[in-house]
Amino acid sequence: VTTIVEADPLAVGLIQPSVPGTPARLGSVDQLVHHLQEDVSELVVVLGPSVCLEQACLVAEQYRAMRPALAIVLVRECMDSSVLAAAMRSGVREVVATDDVAGLTSAVRRAEALARALSGGEQVGEARPVAGGLITVFSTKGGVGKTVVSTNLGAALADLGHRVCIVDLDVESGDAAVMLSLVPERSLGDLARIGGALDEDAVESLLTRHSDRLSVLAAPPDLGVVVAAESVGQALALLKGMFDVVVVDTGGSFDGHTLQALDHSDLLVLVGTLDQPALKNLRLAVGTLDLLNYPRDLWRLALNRADPRVGLSVAEFEKTLGVPAAVTLTSSRDVLVAVNRGETLVRSNGGHSTSRTFASFAARLSQDISLPGRTQPHPRRTSRRATRVRRAA
Length: 393
Ligand SMILES: Nc1ncnc2c1ncn2[C@@H]1O[C@H](COP(=O)(O)OP(=O)(O)O)[C@@H](O)[C@H]1O
Ligand SMILES: [Mg+2]
Hints:
Blueprint: E1 2-5, H1 9-15, E2 24-26, H2 29-38, E3 44-47, H3 53-66, E4 71-76, H4 81-90, E5 94-97, H5 101-120, E6 133-138, H6 146-159, E7 164-168, H7 176-179, H8 200-204, E8 208-211, E9 214-217, H9 229-242, E10 245-249, H10 256-264, E11 267-273, H11 276-291, E12 299-304, H12 314-321, E13 325-328, H13 333-341, H14 345-348, H15 353-369, H16 382-392
Parallel strand pairs: 1-2, 1-3, 3-4, 4-5, 6-10, 6-11, 7-9, 7-10, 11-12, 12-13
Antiparallel strand pairs: 8-9
Helix pairs in contact: 3-4, 4-15, 6-15, 9-10
The structure holds adenosine-5'-diphosphate (ADP) and magnesium ion.
Adenosine-5'-diphosphate (ADP) binds near residues 145, 147 and 339.
């Protein structure tokens, strides 16, 4: 089911252990084209480091239309944002560094699962342009790094060429604007002042521009401002039509604003840290999300400050929660320095290992959002949600 394309036997030796079963091994892209003509059941192709980027992108582009279920995983010696951007635009599913054996293993596993789901499901059909995707960044605990993740993801997605809007739904104590050195003139607090029906122009007037392709709908600068959850929902729906990706930062509880964000979400990034209180809170979050019937395949667990020495391991977290970690981010003084300067690490220090992790996570999320199969958001669960919540309360 999986094919490795790599001419260098040494590189094949590095890649092969990450691929389950006995993969086919080919030396060139030409051989791959022949192979794919014959084998229609192929699901995953791993393109090794000796396949040049241009060729890899051409292959991905070609098969994206012809065989949408086929997943292309790219292995690169060097993974900077230009490589990621080119790969992502062409439809490569994942990009992994040559020395990242664990990363490649999980990338192949994910690609295969997704490819199976896509090829087993109904005919995928042509990729229609759809409204932008919405990613909610959530946890049931403060201080775990939601805003760090939201702002860095937002910047990384923009650097990949997407038009991005970060929405700060931490209405009481939102600090996305501060982390981006912005002093917003308008904010969510002005939603109520908009007379008549909310439309794109009205929402646009509330945004603060950060940089090329990155805008922010800030939280109210003052305390005690009432922001109606329904208008937040309307604003999110409009923003999805105006941007490629909307990243929603949340306040850390299942309040009305968060529920609106969840209802409009295509993906949910659950943030946790590797400590007992965070684990307890994540278990509660997982339980509540299950109660809300929020589909697990849309969850992406992000473990922040995941340092091996603190005691709990990533594996323990995954086992206890029953959710695989989509990304792990280590603690770094440089993250704090960037926060205090009002910069995103991905922009101020793109070569930093945490920045590279953010960039590849962003690339994967944008892939997951723009899959050809996604022609509309997941089925709405609003009515069910209302009854479930009442029962749970
Ligand atoms: N990976 C990290 N390394 C070092 N400091 C971090 C990291 N992630 C977050 N922080 C720091 O932790 C604090 C809380 O992060 P924040 O994003 O505001 O959390 P939340 O939004 O969940 O309340 C911030 O001061 C931030 O700089
Ligand atoms: Mg925050």
